[in-house]
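COMPLEX REQUEST
Ligand: flavin mononucleotide
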Amino acid sequence: MDPILSYELLRSFTTPVVAITAERDGKRNGMISDAAARASIVPDVPRLMILVHKFNYTHDMIFETGRFAVHALHRAQLELVERLGFESGRDRDKLADVPHRLGTLGCPILEDCWAWFECRVINVMDTGSSTCFLGDVVELGRGPGKEILTPGYMRANLPEGLREIYLTKLAAAQAWARERSGDVRAVVWRDLERPRPKP
Ligand SMILES: Cc1cc2nc3c(=O)[nH]c(=O)nc-3n(C[C@H](O)[C@H](O)[C@H](O)COP(=O)(O)O)c2cc1C
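STATUS: Structure written out below.
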């Protein structure tokens, strides 16, 4: 198989660029992803799923708390992509200067975005290198942004220096993920047995 072709073709399945936030024991954090998809067609049972690599700090925060918020970003938020997607919250407080409030579940809800969704994890799937979290949306809303940020727009408009850093980090993440992709485990989400309110 041609790996360059496979990467190029699979890239067409990426989603809008989102900021995923979480909170654990008073610590608030956020990261960037382009792997957040609709997971329900039922209007009154809204669901999202997100794919988060295990090396990210946000991964452990979501796994331990069972909650997260997803923000579809808008085109004028490339600076936020840099702030949340290029460094880890292990090293600094990335949300310190980002205006936000806490949502119903306690996740950081960013003021500026295209739309936001606060979710409770209802199931997970292990991929070896990442976890796919399935979330019930408990609250959602529109932000002030007008045009949603796509990965294509982001790649075409990243400042030159940042593009290099992005590609370097992507290569490192790919190498890390390659090592672990074969180690897929059966994971039973701890709340699976707990009855949930009917929608
Ligand atoms: C455009 C872009 C897309 C990204 N997509 C993903 C993704 O789909 N899944 C993922 O786990 N990390 C993704 N990342 C990487 C994380 O955002 C990055 O590792 C971040 O520093 C994690 O922060 P944390 O350690 O505070 O959680 C992406 C980064 C960028 C810039």
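REMARKS: Helices lie at 3-10, 57-65, 78-85, 151-157, 160-180. The CA atoms of residues 17 and 49 lie 14 Å apart.
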